[in-house]
Design brief:
Strand content of chain A: under 5%
Strand order of the largest sheet of chain B: 1-2-3-7-6-5-4
Number of domains of chain B: 1
Radius of gyration of chain A: 18 Å
Order of helices and strands of chain A: HHHHHHHHH
Structural class of chain A: mainly alpha
Number of strands of chain B: 7
Strand content of chain B: 15-25%
Largest interface: A-B, 70 and 58 residues
Order of helices and strands of chain B: HHHEEEHEEEEH
Number of helices of chain B: 5
Mean pLDDT of chain B: 80
Oligomer: heterodimer
Helix content of chain A: over 70%
Low-confidence stretches of chain A: 82-96, 174-182
Number of strands of chain A: 0
Distance between the termini of chain A: 44 Å
Shape of chain B: globular
Structural class of chain B: alpha+beta
Number of helices of chain A: 9
Shape of chain A: globular
Largest sheet of chain A: none
Chain lengths: 182, 279
């Protein structure tokens, strides 16, 4: 790689490392694995940099690479059914209102535990749609599938989320009664 | 609305993230070195193959046998290739095989349910004396970038043996997914978290191929994984994997490990070659 390309790649890595890790964490539920995924994704991006360096939708390509790395990871048999729901960290919340803190912590814990049990591709769709706030078309582009698949996986993912919450006996009051967006 | 709660929950889940555990600059430097080294290795390997192939071709063209005697060539030598398939009797992907029709999600889910119904009886035919035997759901997922899927069904059996809870996992890959060939499956993957200790490819009497593979963890060599992969002539690949630990974890970091994996090569092979497992 030429030095100016390497400098641009380095700049991209500095800017994207944290958002990539956040995104990866929501897919895998483990900060350490999320960092591994980010570094794997950076390796793939480095190899393909000559092809994508001028792309207008670099962010989309970056997300797509993280998704690919995550899906590759879950396809490994010894990874596929690992239970990561036990690693939700107890973290300090800096908000002064104890009730709001408790409510947020409860929602966060509930979402992470439920998300960990949703099939991996549905989880990817939910994170892209509801965390990255991508449109159906952008989600389809990031996943390399059709918009119809995104809609169906999104609906199915939300249904599964409700089912997991109901089945696990967790406090589901915050997440009941909603319907899927079209 | 669940969408709003989901958005809030996702934002909250990353609101107290720990500091980045690696320096992006250092990571890019390391990646650059690794990629350049890998490219250099491939270039050297290609050059070696070309030189060896060329030497063999020259040797054959002058009729130099192993004994060193020079034979008089009475007919032109056949064209030589610089690479030779290590399994000349098994070609993968199966030549001339048309990819099957793409399954809808509902069709794939229905096949997953069918597999879930048969997996326990098939397991119990091979493995006796286990308790709490339960089928795991077979999820339909998508493998590879070239097919929109679904093209894989993944599930298994959970059970308890003398050491505790564990599981055997079963993956059924449709012919729509370009599954790596047997030789590739046995090749060392530097990015994998395990290292092969045994990897054998056998051609079966019906023309299919079977790979038996045993691997240990690179970080923890005490973890042993054994898989049987059946490469079928309809393009389907079935992988059955057993462990000497509990692959489902269930949040218990300290697990008892068995001396060997919970299924033998023979038992894994019997399940992997069972035609009830297909997609």
């Amino acid at each position: 790689m030429r030095s100016e390309d390497e400098a641009r790649f380095r700049d991209m890595a500095r800017r994207q490392a944290v958002p990539m890790r956040r995104f990866a964490y929501l897919l895998c539920g483990d900060w350490h694995l999320a960092e591994d995924l980010v570094q794997n994704a950076l390796t793939k991006l480095y190899s393909a940099w000559w092809r994508i360096r001028g792309a207008e939708s670099l962010d989309r390509y970056v997300r797509k690479t993280v998704v690919r790395c995550w899906l590759d990871e879950v396809r490994r048999p010894w990874r596929r059914v690992e239970d990561r729901t036990g690693v939700v960290p107890d973290v300090a919340d800096h908000d002064g209102d104890p009730a709001a803190v408790g409510q947020r912590a409860q929602t966060r814990d509930l979402v992470l535990r439920a998300l960990a049990e949703v099939p991996s591709r549905q989880r990817v769709v939910l994170v892209l749609r509801y965390f990255e706030d991508l449109s159906v078309a952008d989600t389809a582009a990031a996943m390399g599938c059709s918009e119809g698949t995104v809609k169906s996986q999104s609906a199915r993912g939300l249904d599964n989320l409700r089912a997991v919450i109901a089945r696990s006996g967790l406090d589901s009051s915050a997440l009941t009664g909603g319907r899927t967006e079209s | 609305m669940i969408e709003k709660e989901l958005r809030d929950g996702l934002r909250g889940a990353v609101s107290d993230e720990p500091p980045l555990g690696f320096d992006p600059d250092d990571a890019v430097t390391r990646i650059g070195v690794r990629v350049r080294r890998r490219r250099a290795t491939f270039a050297v390997a290609a050059a070696v193959v070309a030189v060896v192939g060329g030497a063999v071709a020259v040797q054959q063209s002058v009729g130099l046998g192993r004994s060193g005697d020079v034979e008089i060539a009475t007919r032109p030598s056949p064209p030589t290739s610089t690479t030779t398939p290590s399994r000349p009797d098994f070609t993968w992907p199966v030549p001339g095989l048309a990819p099957p029709k793409r399954l809808s999600q509902a069709e794939a889910d229905a096949r997953g349910r069918a597999l879930r119904d048969v997996v326990v009886p098939k397991f119990l035919q091979q493995v006796k004396g286990m308790s709490n035997v339960r089928a795991m759901p077979f999820d339909s997922t998508t493998a590879g970038p070239d097919d929109p899927g679904p093209n894989v069904l993944e599930g298994g059996v959970e059970f308890r043996d003398q050491e505790g809870d564990t599981a055997v996992l079963v993956s059924v890959y449709s012919a729509r997914y370009a599954f790596p060939g047997p030789d590739q499956e046995c090749a060392d993957d530097p990015h994998s978290s395990v290292r092969n200790t045994i990897c054998r490819v056998d051609r079966l009497a019906d023309g299919t191929a079977l790979v038996f593979n045993e691997a240990v963890g690179k970080e923890d060599p005490g973890n042993v994984i054994a898989s049987a992969l059946h490469y079928r002539l309809d393009g389907v690949v079935v992988r059955v994997t057993a462990y000497n630990y509990n692959p489902t974890g269930k949040g218990t970091p300290l697990q008892s490990r068995r001396a060997r994996t919970t299924m033998t090569e023979q038992q894994l092979t019997a399940v992997a070659t069972d035609r009830a497992f297909t997609m």
